[in-house]
Amino acid sequence: MKKPVLLIIINGIIIITLSLVQVVVANSISTTGIELGKMEKEIAVYKKKNAVLHEQVLISSSLTQIASKAGEMGFEESKTQLVVESPLPIAKR
Amino acid sequence: MTDWRYRFVLLFFSVLLLFVSVRLFYWQVVRAQELALLGQSQYGQNVKLLPKRGEVRTSDGFPLASNKVSYLVFANPKEILEKDKTSRLLSPILKKEEASISALLDMNRYWVALGSKVSSVDKDEIEKLNLPGIGFDDQSIRFYPEASIGAKLLGFVGKNELGDDVGQFGLEGYYDRQLRGKEGVAKQIHDALGRPILAKLNNTSGEIDGRDLILHVDRVLQFILEDELKTGVEQYGAVGGMAAMMDPKTGGILAMATFPSFDPEKYYEHSSEQFKNGFITDTYEPGSTFKPLIMAAAINEGVVKPDTVCPNCSGPVEIGGYEIKTWNDTYRQNLNMIEAIQYSDNTGMVFAGQKLGLDRMLEYFDRFGLGEATGIDLQGEVTPTIRPRSNWYPIDLATASFGQGISVTPIELLSAFASLANNGIRMEPHVVASVETPEGEVIAIPPKVVQRTVSEKTTKIMTEILVNAVEKGEAKWAKPEGYRIAGKTGTAQIPVEGHYDPNQTIPSFIGFAPADNPKFVMLVVLDRPTKSIYGSETAAPIFFRIARKALTYYNIAPTQLLKDEE
């Protein structure tokens, strides 16, 4: 009976081919762990740089820092107020 | 004959199969877990994931408390050959004695910690030295961009017995569980050389970053309040001072400060006494700042009106063998209730208190929330008790009418007084407005109505009485021009061993502005100033300086005609 024999041969070829593909793919990605490690390290470095810059931004924009810098630059507290508004109605004058 | 051979071989292989099955069962079921763990330890590594602690941010989103990157510097003493050189090079960077670093490097261990919370700059400097056997572990430490601004409000992050971070005092303590987050575990699969394998995905489980707190606190108002309070404490030679500003409509705390304060980043350099927020922990006899509450109660009950004349205020009042005098020993015939507040007349207040009666007075104490916790969301609130009715004598009723012989915390008084600025509705004070999850969901904390203290009509009357007290009272010289501010001075005596100290006081000022639509209610309390003992000369000027700046910040124009325009 030829049909079953042909089927077995075709299945066998498929199995062997897929096994070979699996071996090739697994082999090629097994060393990409090195790349993964490098990328993770790079991400960690950027995250840390971000955190350090974030810290510097917060310190620079703190009111404590701004008030101190303003004082050094000669800014003084305003003692008077200027109010601009429309004239009062006659009844209130 | 062949039968027995066949059966023998069959039996042999059956026994062999049984033996193999039993052995497989043993290794794959009985010892399964142990072998799995052994395998994981060989090819996988469990990494503890520390969650990021949540930030504490003011109403404009600026963090008062955040996190920054730092490092733990460790050494493997077995790998260090030149211990003296290593100690000498590390000493100035780690700011430690050479001898103490050397002692650590002499230990017979594979791992010793040389320094913690080392900054990125110092870490880079150490790395450049290329010292063998020195390594770094990431740490995250609490960081306060505004330095000690709001320190007593925030609290700090310390360590528990296990060395884990734990929030203590203030918001860090009260909301520690929300801020802390949850530790997780990540599994990293690696090859024989320790490199990660892409084919196996890393599994993470359980790690949840802490939630952020968004406060009612306004960063600008907090800065103004702290700055003026600090200036005032120094100017008047006080031992300390405290102040807080609240939105009377919501109970939201807009600013709060206590001096002396501490640096939350270096909390370990301060004694534990300095961590307490006096505004919620210190009790004191409030003195004349208490009078508006008694007067409001008496007017609300209808036992007095603003123009009711006190029949016996032309001299000291005698009660139970005690003589009650005014603060300046000045007496006025035909003193009415408006003037009793304006001149801060103790005899007038005794009259109002007696008309109110003890039972009703105690009922109003309850309405105003005195003798119970305000419920403010800060760790460490203290609640002084009101003595039971059976322990009250006529002299106690009289002294309580002008705020002596009764103890309150500043937050209790502020919360009670704020109801007069909110049409008679007392709100629960709250520092946190909302909580933000790591996913960005914002959970608002709605304002909470506690109860009605007095009628809206009474609050209108009291507002005018308090505005009059500011315009014509002892502190009128310090009031900013053009604004209607309602308020009351206080100069409370300090009880010392059965009598009152004649030389030291707790001066204070309480008020709200603008009087007709209050944006804030504020209480300023000084502790034993030396330049003057009176509230009108110490706490009142501080209050008005802060109020003027706050009104300008809120872009609220003066409503009264200024002198030039008259």
How many domains of chain A? Answer: 2
User: Structural class of the helix and strand makeup of chain A?
Assistant: mainly alpha
Our estimate of the beta-strand percent of chain A is under 5%
How many E strands of chain B?
Answer: 21
Plain-language structure description:
The complex is a heterodimer of chains A (93) and B (566). Chain A is an all-alpha fold and 93 residues long. Chain A folds into 2 domains: 1-30; 34-71. In chain A, 73% of the residues lie in helices and 0% in strands. The mean pLDDT of chain A is 84. In chain B, strands 2, 3, 4, 5, 10, 16 and 17 form a 7-stranded mixed beta sheet that branches. A 5-stranded antiparallel beta sheet of chain B has the order 12-11-21-20-19, sandwiched between helices. In chain B, strands 1-8-9 form a 3-stranded antiparallel beta sheet. Chain B has a domain at 219-565: 3-Layer(aba) Sandwich (Beta-lactamase). Chain A binds chain B through residues 26, 29-30, 32-37, 40, 48, 51-52, 55, 58-59, 61-64, 67, 81, 83, 85, 88, and chain B through 62-63, 66-69, 120, 143, 145-147, 149, 190-191, 195-199, 219-220, 223, 227, 482, 552, 557-558, 561.
List keywords for this structure.
heterodimer, A: 93 residues, mainly alpha, 2 domains, 3 helices, 0% strand, elongated, B: 566 residues, alpha+beta, Beta-lactamase, five-stranded antiparallel beta sheet, 23% strand
Helix-strand blueprint:
The complex is a heterodimer of chains A (about 90) and B (about 575).
Chain A: H1 2-30, H2 32-60, H3 63-72
Chain B: H1 2-30, H2 32-43, E1 44-49, E2 56-57, E3 63-75, H3 83-94, H4 98-105, E4 112-118, H5 120-128, E5 134-143, H6 151-154, E6 156-159, E7 165-168, H7 170-174, H8 176-180, E8 184-189, E9 203-205, E10 212-215, H9 219-235, E11 240-246, E12 253-259, H10 278-281, H11 291-301, E13 317-319, E14 322-324, H12 337-342, H13 346-356, H14 358-367, H15 394-401, H16 410-418, E15 425-427, E16 432-436, E17 442-444, E18 449-452, H17 456-472, E19 486-496, E20 499-513, E21 520-527, H18 539-553
Parallel strand pairs in B: 2-10
Antiparallel strand pairs in B: 1-8, 2-3, 3-4, 3-5, 6-7, 8-9, 10-16, 11-12, 11-21, 13-14, 15-18, 16-17, 19-20, 20-21
Helix pairs in contact in B: 3-4, 9-18, 11-13, 11-17, 13-15
